[in-house]
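Hi F.,

I've been meaning to write this up properly since the lab meeting, where we talked about keeping a consistent format for the predictions we share between groups. The idea is simple: the sequence comes first, exactly as it goes in, then the structure tokens exactly as they come out, then a line or two of notes. No screenshots and no reformatting. I'm using this chain as the first example so we have something concrete to point to.
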Amino acid sequence: MDSIVTGSGSILLFLHLLGGAFWLGASMFANVAVVPYIGARPAAERGELVQRLILGPERLLIGAALLAGSTGLLLGVTSGRIGGFDDLSSPFGTLWIASIVTAIAVFATGGLVTSRAAVQLATRPHADDAPSSRAGAETAFRRLRLGFAVEVTGIVSILALMVALGRS
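Output, unedited:
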């Protein structure tokens, strides 16, 4: 780790930690505060709340995640620990690949589950009392809650892998 804490490596490390901290913090905040708050509100209010509290800041969260991921890739390569394909089978390489795979899974969950459920809730407010409308809203909200829970679990897993990387 010493070789990346000098010069441009320290900038990469700072950007990696900044992006990761924002990504984890925003995801935890969504799980602990935003989603429960939206869930406690009447169905007629959820669409606007999802739009403002989830879809509105979504681009910032995606940007932070991409910053953490791209700088993590660069740090792995510029640290000198990954010089070729043979290095990927080392303990460092294995942990690095595991973190990349986990990040891809978290991105996929965000795009395929969480964001789609949020868009469904925001574009179809489900304000009427028809049973099918209420059922659709509840299904979308459960998917939103599940997506955020899977995302934060994945991000915490990546954090644990980063700690292990530092020790390998």
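Notes:
The CA atoms of residues 51 and 122 lie 6 Å apart.
The chain has a mean pLDDT of 88.

If this format works for you, I'll send the rest the same way.

G.
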